[in-house]
Amino acid sequence: MVKLRVEAMKKANILAVVFSVFVIGCFASARPSKPPSEPDGFRGVKWGTNISTVKDLEMVEQVKSSNSDLVWYTRKEDTLAIGKARLENIFYVFWMGTFESVWIDFNGDDNFETLKNELFERFGKVAESEELLRKTDRGRGRSASPTKQAGEFYGWWGKLTEMALSYSRDRQKGTLRLNSRMIREERRAYEKEMEKEKR
Predict the structure, then answer these.
(1) pTM here?
(2) In a shared domain, residues 86 and 162
């Protein structure tokens, strides 16, 4: 009886190790496969730069956010391209006067594929969100996940910068977002504190 119990425990331990390796492998595939070369800002403006030191900005309407502490700008004569991908616009977002993030819009399958390949080349190839979910999803016959319904999504998470590329083939529209991890965390902590004070 004891021998059977020991054998069963050995099998359970082996299965646990195999499952852990599988799950780690799945999540590791969401990370860049090449050494990190993450940006610290965008086009010469570092995260955390004070707005007063950036001279070629023009304020735009805050169409993407209702947060009044976030102010959106474009840069005069900015090149609306990354590699060979053509872009619709590039917004530089400042939180309380500090450079926090970039929001880039683009249109069309060709621009999406070109931009995706450019990002894979620069920052490492990552799995599409839906592919990652399929690898770790135990449920069979479930409806399409929210990420699949929204379109394709790829993410890179570095120590300094988070990047997210999303695209809807139905709408032929996509977005690339880059943000400073440190400033985003500071902003979230500040907003939580403000919420507490309101209560």
Answers:
(1) 0.71
(2) yes
